[in-house]
Predict the structure.
Amino acid sequence: MKNVSLKNIRKDIVSGIIVALVSIPISMGYAQIAGLPAVYGLYCSILPVLIYGLVTSSPQFVFGVDATPAALVGGTLATLGIVSGSEEAKAVVPAITLVAALWLLLFFFIKAGRIVNYISTPVMGGFISGIGVTIILMQAAKLFGGNAGTGEAIQLVMHIAGEFGSFNLLSAVLGVGTVGIILIAKKFIPKFPMSVLLMVLGALATAIFHIDRFGVKLLPHVDKGLPGFSLPDMSVVLKNPSEIILLGLSVAGVVMAQTLLATNNYANKYGYKVSNNREILAYSAANAASAVIGGCPLNGSVSRTGIADQFGCKSQVMSITASLTMLFIVLFGTPVLEYLPVPILTGIVVAALIGITEFGLAVKLWKTDHTEFAIFVGAFLGVLLFGTIYGVVIGVILSFIAVIVKAVEPPRAFLGVIPGQEGFYSLNRYSNVKKIKGVVIYRFNGALFFANINTFIDDIEKNLDDNTKWVIVDAGGVGSIDVTAVDRLMTLYKVLEKKGIRFYITEHEHTLNDQLRELGAGEFVEKGVVRRTIPLALRDAGLDRPYPVEEEEEQAVSGEVHEDNERLAEIEWAFGEDADEWLEKMAAEMADEIGSVKKDEKNVIVDAEKHAAWGRIGLFDENELLERLEMHLFDDKKYPNLDIDDIEKRIDERRVVVEKKLAQINPDAIQMLKEHRKQILDRMKLHNPYAYEHMMEQKKKHYEHLKKKDPELAQKLKNFYNLSDDDK
């Protein structure tokens, strides 16, 4: 078993006891739905749960009598004309359970658990949420004095409406109040065992005030003692072979799909691994154990796992404790069960189910990816409206559709250059990228095949104009190509050639050249259409650094200096449109750090940068950061005790280091930075003249101090800010 430790064992034992107590009404109710006497729900919560806990690879999932398999079995009994709770039902149900266990054993041998590899997070989230809401609807009527329902959402809503004839006000207060109290306690005192306290209070209310006299339902009487052990009578299968064998297959499919999905959802949530195949073996073993005690099929319980998780369960000591607790209850505690109010126990289950829904994921997907959101909704509605199996099928189909959609519409961009910097950058991502004159550079990230070649060609054709002379494809993300795409590329090549436009494919692995030759496009290799890098393609086109860029009309200065800055490199790459905001945040963090250190620390600027959330950044970004940092530090009200002269010196010293390094890397960048600094000062002068005058006064004073102490740095400062010796 995973995660067993002295540190966690107390929480695991407490979780197991609570799971056992909560399992009492759930297991008894679903056993009756499956056609067995209620007490069999308790029997099925002893040996099968113990075996599951010993075999499973999941450290926290709960197995037990649950809704979907019980409903499938109960529905089949009705179809066969077998009376629920009869001797015939007590013979047929364990036979069905054993058939399901055998199907699960077959699934284990064929490694059917691999199906989970094809199910995405949105499918899992939608599936779990659908299961949670379905079980809430099944249990909802018990909150106000009615009976549990079965079926899918529409049937369940109709059942709830019909059960309002049994509405009991005190039951509703107890049931809904339990849900509310647990949810509030989970938020403010999450470690307090509120569920246990409410069960104890419910039992005391029955003992002292006899709330059952006011119409509140209590758990039914259960005779104490253990069940007998015997193999099911499999001759009943021969009487209805197709119905029972197919039902066993359906139950096994539901158990595998629902429990594997839910188990993997918890594994992903908490960052551990489970063995899908071992899980299926655990399901088979637990159901076989249920069959030999005359029980119904068992399944993973999302609701009880949510309760165990709420109480900090870390290992299957929880399942072992739960089985032993249930054994104790069956042997000695059955009289106490009759004091437990059904609405309170139902409220505990409903509160746990609310906690396991993934609607937060749905909100995130809606904001970031509508396709993934649609998959979540599809899986959710599939479970809710059509049941577990159909929900899984719908989710898997939607996942494959999403794969196809992403393959047809892969990430792609048109590229340009940033003057003074190496590399090629997205024209839409970076604010200061310039398009190279006469060149269309197109990056495509995905395999090129029949479903997306039209997208590829349409993108290129829409970006051609009368000045286009060269088209260069950055194929670094193109791992493969099919014959349809090759034929269309050849056609595009010839069309461009007639227009006098040279076509190149670059940055790809050599294997793509082999594919082109094998598929009839060897001409691309022989005529130099393929080039190893974009610069080599540009060189063949007669273009060398610095590349000629298209001039843009000079735009009027506008916007706040803190909001309208450019020349961001790594920060812009990371945060896109939010780059200014994040660099501003980093400058504020550094200013706070500087304001808290001793004034004579030599490396105060670099150390402050290290303490910021992003850490050390590139030279281009650092130059921008120093400008913003100065503006923050000139706030006398926020940093009244700061030695501005000393900090100014440190900033200027750091600026010299940064620009010296930049000059060594790329001399062209220095001119760009000087132009950028002038833009910043112009904007600052226009939009914040007070800050501008204050900063320039500090610069002038600092310059005068440095002329004698550090003439070289003084000259740098003079050049940076166009100061003169006449400035006083």
